[in-house]
Amino acid sequence: MTFKRPDAGLNNENRSFCGLRTMSCASVALVICLGLSGCNTGTTFGAAEPVKSPELIGKSADGLRVVSGLDLPPGERAGQPRRISTNDLLKIQFYEVTDLNRTVRVENDGAITMPLIGSVNAAKLSVPELESELERRYGRDLLQSPDISVFIRHSPGREITMDGSFRKPGAYRVEGEADLMKMVANAGGLRDIADDGTLYVYRKFEQETQVLPVSLKAIRNGQARNPKLYSGDVVVAFSSKRKIALQNLKEALGVATSAARIGAPL
């Protein structure tokens, strides 16, 4: 997936953290709309600095929509159990039939292999749903009123991706709760050429991808909440063209200075 910067297509005079004035045809028609109420529904996290153009809140294109707070992922919403993913390691226990106990990994096709019944689809099911399916399969011809428990021992698929101008970009495994500042630290912080004004958190849903612009400075100053992150989130740090140009200038001056020293008479 190629991530588009919400303020792409703006020159330096028109680009601002608070809003967008113009937009290139290839850019997403989005606006940095942090800190305002009423711009999206559901439980939200990560509200930050207010914007000057509240009428632009909720504008979207190409399946992306800038929000002032990210909705919770479906599997994390209150009352909704987490779904099993491929590569999850499951411990399956049978009450009073311990010979059938197994620790199995969910294969890439979403299935697990169990004794006597073979392949069972597990991916995208909740733990209670998989327990019910196993009890149904074993109870059909093999066991009388089976009592089966499923536990998720390990879930390598629960990862957050730190992309762009981080010192150590990559996918990081989520163990317990995670937040933006913690993940930025795990990724080694921002590179010198990074635009440290705003990071963008992308969270994919079935119908759209929400984009939350976040100011690290506002979080550090206590002016914004440190948003919680969940498995599948992608945090993007874009490079600053001004910093890149300044770095190139310094390098060019350094080369010129070295050349002058080499060519100077002794």
How would you describe the overall organization of this protein?
- This protein is α+β, with helices and mostly antiparallel strands and 266 residues long.
- Helices cover 19% and strands 24% of the residues.
- It contains four helices and 16 strands.
- The strands form five sheets. A seven-stranded mixed beta sheet has the order 2-3-14-13-16-10-11. A three-stranded antiparallel beta sheet has the order 6-5-9, with helices on one face.
SS elements, strand count: 16
Q: What is the mean predicted local confidence, pLDDT?
A: 74
- Compressed to H and E, one letter per element, the order equals EEEEEEEEHEEEEHEEHEEH
List the uncertain runs.
9-57
Q: Can you tell me the CATH class of the domain at 44-76 and 160-239?
A: Alpha Beta
Continuous helix count: 4
Main sheet: strand order: 2-3-14-13-16-10-11
First-to-last CA distance: 57 Å
**How is the CATH topology of the domain at 44-76 and 160-239 named?**
Outer membrane lipoprotein wza fold like
